[in-house]
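Reopening this one. Same input as before:
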Amino acid sequence: MISKIFNFVVLQVGWFACVLGVAKGYTWLGPLFVLLFLVGHLAWVSTHWRREMLFILAVGGLGAVADSLQKMYGVLTYLDDFLRLDWLAPMWIISLWVLFATSFGTSLKWMQGRYVIGALFGFIGGPMSYLAGVKCGALSFKYDPTFSMLVLGLVWGSLMPLLLWMTQIFGLTAVESNGILLHQPEKAASPGN
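Same output, byte for byte:
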């Protein structure tokens, strides 16, 4: 339970570090926060850090593609990024995807295997997070806000079930013991198999 609460709090702090950091001209603040948290998460929380790191990189890559496409097609307009690559979503939003990936074994563990709930969560929660980013001044909608929110809802409503499925593919189905995240042990082959 402690790891779930801690992860949830870190997600909120990380979101504000990324979004308010870029809105106030500190584009490096969010990515630095996420990097430091990620090192600690993999060192002290994750018992299968290699598998989880691959999952986190896959989610970060998937998020980079999703947000880069939305940037290229004009759904979202981001404030300046320190990389300044026209074809790539800014580092702070990719960092948010990386941070979000750490929640699937902790604060979002309850959602594992619940694909319809995940789709609804993504359809509503994803666009609301971007809308909050717009209100904070980190990005803007190029088109009508209703259209942009609908596109974001469809993207996130599709990606959440995929991300939940990926937790199983990467073997990140987890259990908790004494407030510390522990991964289920690998099943040993029984004699005669």
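So the earlier flakiness isn't reproducible anymore. For the record, The helical segments are 2-23, 29-45, 49-72, 91-101, 115-136, 145-169.
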